[in-house]
Write a structure and sequence with these properties.
It is a single chain. The protein is an alpha/beta fold. Among the domains are: 106 residues, Luciferase, domain 3, CATH 2.30.38; 101 residues, GMP Synthetase, Chain A, domain 3 (2-Layer Sandwich), CATH 3.30.300.30. It is 30% helix and 25% strand. It has 16 helices and 29 strands. The strands form seven sheets. Strands 2-1-10-9-11-12-13-14-15 form a nine-stranded mixed sheet, with helices on both faces. Strands 18, 19, 21, 22 and 23 form a five-stranded antiparallel sheet that branches. Strands 4-3-5-6 form a four-stranded parallel sheet, sandwiched between helices. α3 crosses α4, α3 packs parallel to α7 and α8 crosses α9. The longest helix has 17 residues. The N and C termini lie far apart (59 Å).
Length: 542
């Protein structure tokens, strides 16, 4: 890309015909102008926009054969591939609801999501059909299971995929779809209970995609790389959506390989990389021998981006445009640091903007538990209004209603706002540890401990205290040899108030993670063997 010739976000969108705020109309408007421009790459398979449209129309025809129509849920239970994207677009073309699921879920976890969404068709690899068939039978769901292998999931070229799909069905037409009709159900990680099915409309997806063009100043020749799963808002709405909105190219992979990342990114010519905190931290700690200086990545989007990660990406990896943002499954892309600055390191940024909307795209404020706006600089709960607010939780109107107060969505996140209107994440309300009358943010402890040179990853939780509140328990993964507890204690007292220093310490080989790579602290708290091998700084006999 040539920075001197960069278009504004509004100019990028203006290159294409107007659309109807639906996903099929967005794709059609891009096909009309750049039918032969590269649109999607997975491994050796690469599609131009016309092929993307044809492939999705063929899968839509296949779905029609199995009775899929507007409003019907269709599940995709497999790792990322080009067929994930084609199936998503196919569902959109019919007005069906696309329900991406994590194939790595345990049987009880997957049973819940299947039983809750009740898909009528399930796409999966052949190796998973027996398992899925058993689950849907036990649930009493009448679902058709479609294997991805006959559709070309193992083919060496996109043309082969299209040949195999054309042997299975004819291209379907596009149904009459309202912009506010449901498009996709994204399940939350379920860190505080059962996962919730977050329903988003066509308009939400399209506007979030266009807002990402503004957020990252995407260009028509952008090459967006994501290693995040498509059951994650980041990959689906920002990476895929952003690529489609800009008329650029999405590059995806079925998994994240830290050792191959830079070589792979160089080989595919990626210009932008979407990440999350865990991925960025892993890359920073990898041997520099794995780094390929010939990569073309110039932009990184994610959050949170720590000062250490920011410094390494700039100095060691040569990437100067790191944009930290914030969103949730319910409110994608709520805010971000402005692309052209000023940037405030460690901040979530300011309310997002959209190239077709004057002023800010989202409204954000900080409230106390009674719903009163708190003064600037005071910590409170972030509440949000945005045009791309989710439609509700699937089959759960009560939970949907409880997520709002006076028309504002309650994020459950504690933040503060500075005098310039920038927001700063403090902690999840449910990640606050109550220690001797004080509120301690687990996220702050995780960051400080994770910055210790001998620590690869850290998670802190609250455990019951004899004093009636909580003690702090630190669960750590060492990079090599574990540091001494005295060393860690000294590190904590150097960076934190004494009350924030953990009482309990334990080293493990790895931490449990949610499908979106967050540490699953709820699993640590429920582990009956949590204290096995732990060091008690107050009473080392425990």
């Amino acid at each position: 890309m040539t920075e001197l010739a960069a278009l504004t976000a509004a100019e990028v969108l203006a290159r294409y015909p107007a659309h109807a705020d639906t996903l099929p109309s967005l794709v059609a408007s891009r096909v009309a102008i750049v039918p032969n421009a590269p649109a999607l790459r997975f491994g050796p398979r690469e599609y131009v926009y016309a092929e993307l449209a044809r492939g999705s129309a063929l899968i839509a025809g296949l779905l029609q054969k199995h009775g899929i129509e507007a409003g019907v849920p269709v599940a995709f239970v497999a790792t990322n591939s080009d067929l994930t994207v084609l199936s998503f677009l196919a569902c959109a073309q019919l007005g069906a609801m696309f329900v991406p699921m994590n194939v790595a879920l345990t049987d009880p976890e997957l049973s819940f999501v299947l039983g809750h969404s009740k898909p009528q068709v399930i796409f999966a690899r052949e190796r998973d059909l027996t398992r899925l068939g058993g689950l849907v039978t036990a649930l009493g769901i009448h679902a058709t299971l479609l294997a991805l292998e006959p559709m070309g999931v193992d083919s060496s070229a996109a043309t082969e995929v299209l040949v195999q799909l054309s042997a299975m069905s004819e291209e379907a037409g596009t149904a009459a779809i309202a912009a506010d009709s449901p498009l996709v159900v994204v399940y939350t990680s379920g860190t505080t209970g059962f996962p919730k099915g977050v329903v988003h409309s066509h308009r939400n997806f399209v506007w979030a995609a266009e807002a990402f063009v503004e957020r990252m100043q995407l260009q028509p020749d952008e090459r967006l790389l994501t290693v995040l799963p498509f059951f994650h808002i980041n990959a689906l709405f920002y990476s895929l959506g952003g690529a489609l909105a800009a008329g650029g190219k999405l590059i995806t992979a079925d998994s994240f390989s830290a050792s191959r990342f830079w070589d792979d990114a160089t080989a595919v010519g990626a210009t932008l990389f979407n990440t999350i905190a865990a991925v960025g931290g892993i890359l920073c700690k990898r041997p520099r021998a794995e780094y390929n200086p010939n990569h073309r990545i110039r932009k990184v989007y994610g959050g949170p981006i720590s000062p250490d990660v920011d410094a390494v990406f700039r100095a060691d990896f040569g990437i100067q445009n790191l944009i930290e943002g914030y969103g949730m499954s319910e409110i994608p892309g709520a805010c971000n640091n402005p692309y052209f600055g000023p940037h405030k390191l460690g901040s979530m940024g300011k309310p997002a903007r959209h190239p077709r909307i004057a002023g800010t795209f989202a409204e954000m404020r900080v409230e106390d538990d009674a719903g009163n706006v708190v003064p600037t600089g005071v910590v409170g709960e972030l509440v949000v209004k945005t045009p791309i607010l989710f439609k509700g939780y699937l089959h759960d109107p009560e939970q949907t209603a409880n997520s709002f107060r006076n028309g504002w969505f309650l994020t459950g996140d504690l933040v503060r706002e500075d005098e310039d209107g920038y927001f700063y994440f403090i902690a999840r309300k449910k990640d606050i540890i109550r220690v001797r009358g004080e509120n301690v943010a687990g996220a702050e402890l995780d960051r400080v401990l994770g910055n210790h040179p001998a620590i690869a990853e850290a998670a802190t939780i609250g455990v019951p205290s004899a004093l009636g509140e909580e003690d702090i328990f630190a669960v750590l993964v060492a990079r090599n040899l574990p540091p001494s507890i005295s060393d860690l204690t000294a590190w904590c007292t150097q960076h934190l108030a004494a009350i924030k220093c953990p009482r309990y310490w334990r080293f493990v080989d790895e931490l449990p993670h949610t499908p979106s790579y967050r540490v699953a602290k709820h699993r640590l708290k429920s582990d009956p063997n949590l204290f096995a091998g732990a060091y008690d700084a107050k009473n080392s006999e425990r």
